[in-house]
Task: inverse folding
């Protein structure tokens, strides 16, 4: 499998249709979205950054059987209200209008308690009946004995069962295979309108 970057869009009216199931990635800026895409692709196809808030576009990555769609990171504190509202509406119009959307991965930092932005996103997905999984990133930063505690804490904070939380480390290659299997389950079911 070779994955590649296929393009970006900055306006709801330019949302692409690559004619294959889409797995969207959402999460606060700096949570590890680009790094996860590179880890799944086993190649450097997404730009990563130590500076939060650099991705303001919807980026499309072709994984042959499906497309990963990297949405702008929300909750970037230094952005002004107009910018925040612009990204918010771009994210929401993509999620409501893409006819190929098959599943959403909501990335959250495994070291943190549940954040308001993430709860809002999950409520939005529930409200619109969009299927999603929570991916707990940077699990390598938690000592092994405390990982299960962090997963249970996230599950109860989001009112989900722990089977919906996928702990991963892009750096140490933890959890990537089970996440990939999860993705394929939804890819096989097809997009929203297919
Ligand atoms: N330790 C560790 N650091 C990570 C992991 N994933 C991402 N990071 C770091 O987190 C920062 C933000 O990552 P990035 O992928 O650019 O986040 P994005 O803004 O959500 O796309 C970078 O410094 C990454 O190296 C991980 O699994 N483990
Ligand atoms: Mg990024």
Result:
């Amino acid at each position: 499998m070779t994955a590649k970057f296929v393009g970006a869009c900055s306006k709801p009216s330019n949302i692409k249709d690559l004619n294959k199931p889409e797995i969207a990635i959402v999460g606060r800026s700096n949570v590890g979205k680009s790094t996860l895409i590179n880890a799944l692709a086993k190649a450097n196809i997404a730009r990563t950054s130590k500076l939060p808030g650099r991705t303001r576009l919807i980026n499309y990555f072709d994984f042959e059987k499906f497309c990963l769609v990297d949405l702008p990171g929300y909750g970037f504190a230094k952005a002004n209200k107009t910018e925040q509202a612009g990204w918010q509406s771009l994210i929401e119009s993509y999620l409501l209008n893409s006819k190929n959307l098959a599943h959403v991965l909501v990335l959250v930092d495994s070291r943190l308690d549940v954040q308001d932005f993430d709860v809002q996103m999950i409520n939005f997905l529930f409200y619109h009946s969009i299927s999603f999984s929570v991916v707990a990133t940077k699990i390598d930063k938690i000592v092994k004995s405390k990982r299960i505690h962090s997963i249970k804490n996230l599950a109860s904070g989001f009112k989900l069962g722990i089977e919906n939380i996928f702990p991963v480390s892009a750096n140490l290659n933890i959890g990537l295979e089970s996440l990939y299997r999860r993705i394929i389950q939804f890819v096989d079911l097809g997009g929203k309108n297919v």
Remarks:
- The domain at 4-189 is CATH 3.40.50.300 (Rossmann fold).
